[in-house]
Design a protein that fits this description.
Layout lengths: L5 H15 L1 H23 L7 E5 L5 E3 L2
Antiparallel strand pairs: 1-2
Helix pairs in contact: 1-2
């Protein structure tokens, strides 16, 4: 027996439609798509390195720029 048979997915989709309603499902789908797009973008882009100032403060510590 297949775990995700088409009949099982159809029943799950009908239950979601009843619980959330058509307008909420559209909003949830849009939010999910935006989240996946942002995640893929973050994975492709390298992380920016932290910048540390080279000049020393009066007490001799290095200051970190935000």
């Amino acid at each position: 027996m297949d775990l995700f048979a088409p009949s099982h997915l159809l029943v799950i989709m009908v239950i979601c439609l009843i619980v959330f309603g058509p307008s909420k499902l559209g909003d949830l789908g849009g939010a999910m798509g935006k989240t996946i797009k942002d995640f893929k973008k973050a994975v492709r882009e390298p992380e920016e390195p932290k910048v540390v100032r080279a000049d020393k403060a009066e007490d001799g510590r290095m200051d970190e720029m935000s």
